[in-house]
Specification:
The chain is mostly helical. It has helices at 10-35, 47-60, 62-65, 69-83, and strands spanning 87-90, 96-98. A two-stranded antiparallel ribbon has the order 1-2.
Amino acid sequence: MSRFRTCPTPVQAEHMLLHCAHARYVWNLAVEQHAHWKPGRRSAPGFAEQCRQLTAARRENEWLAAGNADVQQQALKDFATARNARPCHRHRTGARVWAGWPAEAEPENR
C-alpha cells in the first residue's frame, strides 16, 4: 500500500473523476453481460473478448474514447480476476478464504 498523498488541482481532480466514471461504466457493462447469462446460452465473454468489445465501443462512443484505454482495460481485468476468484481453504474460524480476496473482503454473493 502506498503512503503518498495527492493534492490534485481542480482540473486534475476533474480528470480523475472522469477516469473513475469510465472505469465504473466499463465494470457495470461487464457485470451486465455476466448477469445476462442463463443456462443454455453461450457463455459470457471473457477478458479478451471484452477488450475487443471495448475497442469497438471506444470507436463508436466519443465520451468513452475521451478516456484512458488503460484505465478501462484495467477495470475489465479486475472484473475478470474477481469473477474467477475461488475459495482456496477455510480459516480456522470456519470462514471461507477466497483466493485473490482478503479475508475481510469476502464477496457477499458467493
